[in-house]
Amino acid sequence: METKKDILWRSYLVYLLMLLIGVAIIGKAFVIQQVEGSYWKGLSDSLHLEYRELDAERGSIYSEDGRMLSSSIPYFDIYLDFGAEGIQEKNGERFKKNLDSVSISLAAILQAKTPADYKRELAAVFRNQDRYHLLVKNINFNQYRELKEVSFIKKNKNKNGFIFVEKEKRMAPFGLLANRTIGLAREYMDSSGNIISKSVGLEKTYDSLLKGVTGKRLVRRISGGAFVPVEGQEIEPENGKDIITTIDINVQDVAEQSLLKVLSENECEQGTCIVMEVKTGKIKAIANLGRKANGEYDEIKNYAVERSEPGSTFKLMTMLAVFEDQYANINSHVNIEGGKWELNGKTVWDSERHDRTDVTVQQAFELSSNVGMAKLAMSYYSNNPQRYINHLKKLRLTGRSGVDLLGESFPLIPDPKRRDWSNVTLPWMSFGYNVAVSPLQTLMVYNAVANNGRMMKPYLVNSILQEGRSVRSFEPVILEDSICSPNTLKQLKICLEGVVNSGTAKSLQSPYYSFAGKTGTAKIANGNKGYDEHHYQSSFAGYFPAEAPKYSCIVVIKNKPFAAKYYGAAVAGPVFQAIADKMFTLDAELYASYRHKQFADTSRSIWHGTKNDFARIAKSLKVELKDSGKKGVLAAMTYGKKKMEGETTSVQHSNMPDLKGYGLKDALELLERQQLQVVAVGKGKVTSQSIMAGMPVQRGQTVYLTLGAITQ
To answer: Quick check: helix, strand or coil at residue 432?
Structure first.
């Protein structure tokens, strides 16, 4: 009996304990569900949900006339979520009904697989209820737009299972043109998970404005470690602002092609060319080309803002100092000793051998005499070299130009107070050695001379736009009201014009317009090989037209070792000349100063038109038509003694025809055939044209025609 009671008591105790445990479990479940439910649900979501950044649409970069230089093009990846409830409902009835039509549409739009292949892939994804299957990567916007018009895909993604993930790629429609100046906008993640930026040029300088404000999107983790967006949980990004540059795409094209031609012909290592608007400091073109291992040229670095020894273009700064301090003038004399001068154990050589001795200061400059410049510097500044350096400071050569491009080199100008100053530093500085400045800084000085002494800050951006509205504008900035006195300025201009008229650049002068400038030829070191490889840098800096400068330009080219041609006038000068020639045909304001050849006016006895028109007239008048020219389109005819005679000429589609004396109808027919844009002013026949006859033309170029009465 006692044993039975003991067993029963123990059974009751176990039952009671089990009851208490059950009550505790039920109680805890109640607390978790009702009291702590929100907390645990949030904790669960935090393990499966996260916010991911949504990149804003990057702003575009435009030329001054509104042509796109750099922009973001949208691309899309397509994922399939066929495990969604909406697509699986009713055993996938809606999906199965549209499977064939969707497969046909995908094949037609994407053109990557056959309809049968897409059908098999879609069916397998549906059967496996995959939640984030990659269908295709990098489709373009047109394909995306076409897919969104497919009836099945139009529906909410919960109903169709198609997820479009937008990305963007940076594109430069004009390719090589100004590529290094416009820059790149690239980021990548290194092995440590750090974001590395590879942006350069304007893309880097104005990155904070171009990139906009990043948005956020809530995504849910699913099987396989993939994430799918949560509908309606997005913070939209704020798109980046647009930039309007000072670049003129026509001038940029001329500069790029002119530079490329000379570099290719001479197998040069690298070159840069900058064109600046004299009055404002706007950079209209900036070309940078470097030679790759395969012999082709590309915009590798921005050589325009990299420092190097300027060579003889620096002689202008020495002349300015001497004239401004009134130590000498253009008529003062200096003995250049046949181009060789021994000084403090070193020899100063002129780059071109000659037997000249006593010359004027102007002649020494025109001859680009190193001896002449060294003697002037030593005669007047050897006891006080700081005075010479102070002139360079006023010319803004001891600091960066301030152009709106990151990565500009800091110049190297020796200081008499430093240990690196020696007894030959000053004379070698006077002709452009022992100093290092960027081509852009040199151009700033030449531009200031062209601008009557006023130095302008160079700049590349006109305005910042947000949704088409200007939010910030950039105006010309004056760095120095006057770099020198009017008398000094007058003498500098005479010297620069003299270089072209009778000096080292006389081979470049044009009968049609005037320009002024200075050649430069600097021997440079080639790495650890030093100066033994006859490695030269050629340059030319100047402005045009000389009497009323509108543009300044500098060309700096690094030649290959032992190059056959390396003088500034032979290598850099032709690039400057080609740019000036072309710009006189592009710019109507410049063309007004163009000096045309004068011909005897025989317009009363000569008629201009097309050969077909003259043939019809001759037939109507029943007179003989005598053509002494080649078969062609244009005709210039005289009429007398019952016959029409003259000659026809063919039209070269790549060159401008001579339209003087032609009616507007004939002129339009010819120019439109060449795919040129025509702007005509006045009435009558063509009296002048903005592009000189025989000059090269490009499709889409604008030609200005002036019409009027032609009299003897």
So the answer is: coil
Per-residue pLDDT tens digits for 5-61: 667 777 777 777 787 787 778 877 776 676 666 655 554 544 456 665 666 677 788
Same-domain status, 622 and 687? yes
* 223 shares its domain with 274: no
Q: Does residue 213 sit within a domain?
A: yes
Residue with tokens 């495990």: 83
Stretch 290-309: mean pLDDT: 89
- How far apart CA 505 and CA 516 sit, in angstroms, is 9
Q: Which domain holds residue 148?
A: 52-244
pTM for the full predicted model: 0.69
The answer on 353 and 496 residing in a single domain is: yes
- Nearest one of 626, 480, 471, 490 to 546, comparing CA atoms: 490
Q: Is residue 329 part of a domain?
A: yes
Give 174's DSSP letter: T
- Of 4 and 194, which is predicted with more confidence? 4
3 state DSSP class of 372 = helix
CATH of the domain at 462: 3.40.710.10
- Rounded average pLDDT over 534-540: 88
- If one counts every other C-beta atom within 10 angstroms of the C-beta of residue 222, the result is 15
**Among 98-102, 306-310, 419-423, 674-678, which range has the highest average pLDDT?**
306-310
Examine residue 229 and say whether the peptide bond preceding it is cis (omega within 30 degrees of 0). Answer: no
Domain tally, the chain: 4
Residue 584 sits in the same domain as residue 641: no
Phi/psi at 299 (5° precision): -80, 85
**Which residue in this structure is represented by tokens 């416009």?**
182
- Contact predicate 561/533, CB 8 Å: yes
Dist CA 388 CA 320 (whole Å): 10
CATH classification at residue 671: 3.30.10.20
Q: For residue 499, which of 313, 318, 270, 251 has the smallest C-alpha distance?
A: 313
Q: What is the pLDDT of residues 648-683, one digit of tens each?
A: 655 566 778 887 877 887 778 778 777 888 878 777
Are 183 and 460 in contact, with CB atoms under 8 Å apart? no
User: CA-to-CA distance for 179 and 449, rounded, in angstroms?
Assistant: 30
Same domain, 264 and 132: no
What does the buried/exposed string (b/e) look like for 65-96 if buried means 16 or more CB atoms within 10 Å of the residue's CB? eeeebbbbeebbebbbbbbbeebbeeebebbe
In this structure, the answer to whether residues 435 and 461 fall within a common structural domain is yes
Same domain, 338 and 390: yes
In a domain, 596, yes or no: no
Outline where DSSP puts E strands in 34-111.
49-54, 61-62, 68-80
Domain stops at, among 244, 278, 309 = 244
Spatial neighbors of 586 by CB under 8 A, at least 6 apart, are: 250, 251, 254, 701
| Final residue of a structural domain among 189, 222, 244 | 244
Alpha carbons 112 and 667: distance in angstroms, whole number: 50
Tell whether 92 is covered by a domain.
yes
Q: Which segment of 95-99, 629-633, 660-664 scores lowest on mean pLDDT?
A: 629-633
Tell me if 397 sits within 8 A of 410, measured CB to CB: no
Whether residue 147 is found in the same domain as residue 282: no
